[in-house]
Amino acid sequence: MATTTTGVYTPKQFHLAGLSGISDKTLEMHFKLYEGYVTNTNKLTEQLDALARSGKAASTNAAYAEITRGLGFEYNGMILHEHYFGNLKRQPTAQPSAALANALRSNFGSVESFTADFKAVGGMRGVGWAILFQDPATGRLSNHWITLHEN
């Protein structure tokens, strides 16, 4: 998560220039988006704190409701970009841990089937995220397309 010691987030630095498969220009655009999410997370958190301190944190307060919804969008954008950047590697040769490989085989039949399915989801046309999701109730793994990252 973006660094914080005071309750204020600061953007992490990711040194990813020169990766194959994604241009430096595309990375720079994503870094700018990420920095905006961090900035807006801080602003909205500050506004919500002020409303709470003044006794105006209420579901009937339209400003409070909209700021809270906005915080979900900004915060999740910040966190998902950190996961995204953290998973980009110069030499993408990492293999899943034994536990993850077993779970992937159990849910997809094989690691290769999972990989093919994940790439198919990630290659779909549109703006969004491809994620591997673990259902907390069943433990089942499945790949999902997420259009709105606050959801």
Summarize this structure as a short list of keywords or feature phrases:
4 helices, 52% helix, two-stranded antiparallel ribbon, 151 residues, mainly alpha
The helix content is: 40-55%
Structural class: mainly alpha
If strands are numbered along the chain, what order do they take across the biggest sheet?
1-2
Using the alpha-carbon principal axes, give the shape. Answer: globular
The percent range for strand residues is 5-15%
Helix count, per DSSP? 4
Uncertain parts: none
On the 0-100 scale, what is the average pLDDT? 91
The CA-CA distance between the termini, in Å, is 18 Å
The H-and-E topology, N to C, reads as HHHHEE
Q: Count every beta strand, where a strand is a DSSP E run of 2 or more residues.
A: 2
**How would a textbook summarize the main sheet?**
2 strands, antiparallel
Q: Radius of gyration from the CA trace?
A: 19 Å
3D structure, described in words:
With 151 residues, the protein is mainly α. The chain has 4 helices and 2 strands. A two-stranded antiparallel sheet has the order 1-2. A hairpin with a 6-residue loop joins strand 1 (129-134) and strand 2.
What would a concise description of this structure say?
The protein is mainly alpha-helical and 151 residues long. The protein has helices at 24-53, 62-87, 98-108, 111-122, and strands spanning 129-134, 141-146. The radius of gyration is 19 Å and the shape is globular.
